């Protein structure tokens, strides 16, 4: 088969996705380049802490003659309305029995809880859905930082940062969004309605699609993924149907979490270190002996490897798809990366905090970049010292 154009638009590293992503951004970027890719997005959970690493290493690659495009993004935690969720949270706090069902503790570090994202939790007060957001240009990057900063402030933050439609409507310019994984916004419809039947799932997904289209227009994409999880293929089928009905373009992503094919076992060990003392009920502390036992390969793939994953895992799960539809979803990522997302030098990000308390939360986002890395480091040290 000829080379299939593809760009990974959904990826995690150890800097911004602790105990979930593994390796530094430069490791992911270098492997993606050596594997035939000309670009790669970084979309860590709830923050953009890896952005400085992206910017600096992209400059190094450029100096070495490597033509590679960093794409800046985040996999945000999304709920439809923070205002409605806040009312529900306060009601729970008033009831001693219900209060026990709320996730305990607060932290400035976002550590992904896969079970809660997928709906495997005691009550939907703890649920939040994943949403991939990518900056098309400097305006989009500025808006990403504004949304992330707000997500760590006030009513938006309780245990995890949250954004909603209100924030997207306010800061949606220059933003491309996708529906993410089995913890994503479409998956929420699946987990919450599957016991009621297909039509209940589809109706929920149609409503979600219309809301995102109303907010983002044709910058809303439906995301497919490829693994050996049966529920993923059920979700894929629903997504393909709804996308076809409502004119949404499909993309396929590998949702990479480690920098090369050989790092899968190190990432599995790293995940389990994060589970010490708080292992999820659904998880096993035993290390898998092969990547096939894991059921997916989460390194930065090229287009032909994406196609191979699609064919391999759809066959294992006994699910048939239209090949042309899936091929288009793979190549669409390349079109987004090079025709919809601009190449731009990151300029200053304006610090808008009005208090040191807000600044503490906003440190989840990179607040200022300069050509001189030492100046940036001194700036961060001064900020941290002021907060302390």
Name some characteristics of this structure.
single chain; 388 residues; alpha/beta; TIM Barrel; globular
Low-confidence stretches: 358-372
List the helices and strands in order: HEHEHHHEHHEHHEHEHHHHHH
- Give the helix proportion (percent range): 40-55%
Strand fraction equals: 5-15%
CATH architectural category: Alpha-Beta Barrel
Class per helix and strand makeup? alpha/beta
In whole angstroms, how far apart are the ends? 57 Å
Can you walk through the features of this model?
The chain has 16 helices and 6 strands. The model is unreliable at 358-372 (pLDDT under 50). Helix 13 (303-316) runs antiparallel to helix 14 (323-340). The radius of gyration is 20 Å and the shape is globular. Helix 10 links the parallel strand 5 (220-224) and strand 6 (249-252). The protein has a 6-stranded mixed β-sheet. The longest helix has 19 residues, at 198-216. The protein has a single domain, classed as Metal-dependent hydrolases (TIM Barrel). The chain is α/β, with parallel strands linked by helices and 388 residues long.
Helix-strand layout with pairing:
Layout: H1 25-34, E1 39-42, H2 51-63, E2 69-78, H3 82-94, H4 96-99, H5 114-117, E3 129-135, H6 138-151, H7 165-171, E4 175-178, H8 185-193, H9 198-216, E5 220-224, H10 230-246, E6 249-252, H11 264-275, H12 291-294, H13 303-316, H14 323-340, H15 356-362, H16 373-387
Parallel strand pairs: 1-2, 4-5, 5-6
Antiparallel strand pairs: 2-3, 3-4
Helix pairs in contact: 1-2, 8-9, 9-10, 13-14, 15-16
Provide a compact summary of the structure:
This protein has 388 residues and is of the alpha/beta class. It has 16 helices and 6 strands. Helix 8 runs antiparallel to helix 9 (198-216), helix 13 (303-316) runs antiparallel to helix 14 and helix 15 crosses helix 16.
């Amino acid at each position: 088969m000829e080379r299939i154009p593809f760009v990974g638009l959904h990826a995690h590293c150890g800097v911004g996705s602790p105990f979930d992503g593994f390796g530094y951004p430069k490791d992911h970027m270098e492997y993606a380049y050596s594997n035939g890719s000309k670009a790669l997005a970084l979309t860590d959970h709830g923050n953009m802490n890896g952005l400085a690493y992206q910017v600096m290493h992209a400059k190094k690659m450029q100096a070495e003659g490597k033509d590679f495009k960093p794409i800046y993004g985040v996999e945000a935690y999304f709920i439809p309305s923070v205002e409605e969720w806040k009312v529900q949270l306060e009601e729970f706090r008033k009831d001693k029995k219900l209060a026990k069902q709320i996730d305990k503790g607060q932290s400035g570090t976002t550590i992904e809880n896969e079970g809660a994202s997928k709906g495997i939790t005691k009550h939907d007060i703890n649920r939040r859905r994943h949403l991939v957001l990518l900056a098309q240009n400097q305006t989009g990057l500025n808006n990403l930082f504004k949304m992330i900063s707000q997500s760590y402030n006030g009513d938006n933050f309780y245990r995890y940062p949250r954004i909603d439609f209100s924030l997207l409507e306010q800061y949606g310019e220059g933003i491309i969004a996708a529906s993410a994984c089995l913890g994503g916004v479409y998956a929420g419809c699946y987990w919450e309605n599957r016991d009621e039947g297909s039509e209940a799932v589809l109706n929920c997904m149609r409503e979600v699609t219309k809301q995102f289209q109303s907010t983002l227009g044709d910058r809303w994409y439906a995301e497919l993924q490829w693994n050996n999880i049966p529920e993923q293929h059920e979700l894929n089928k629903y997504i393909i149907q709804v996308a076809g009905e409502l004119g949404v373009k499909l993309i396929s992503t590998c949702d990479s979490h480690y920098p090369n094919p050989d790092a899968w076992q190190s990432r599995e060990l790293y995940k389990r270190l994060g589970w010490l003392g708080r292992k999820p009920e659904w998880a096993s502390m035993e290390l898998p002996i092969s990547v096939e036992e894991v059921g997916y390969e989460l390194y930065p793939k090229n287009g032909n490897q994406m196609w191979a994953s699609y064919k391999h895992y759809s066959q294992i799960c006994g699910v048939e798809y239209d090949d042309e539809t899936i091929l288009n979803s793979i190549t669409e990522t390349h079109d987004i990366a090079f025709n919809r997302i601009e190449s731009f030098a990151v300029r200053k990000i304006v610090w808008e905090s009005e208090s040191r308390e807000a600044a503490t939360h906003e440190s989840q986002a990179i607040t200022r970049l300069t050509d001189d890395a030492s100046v940036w480091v001194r700036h961060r040290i001064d900020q941290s010292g002021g907060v302390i």
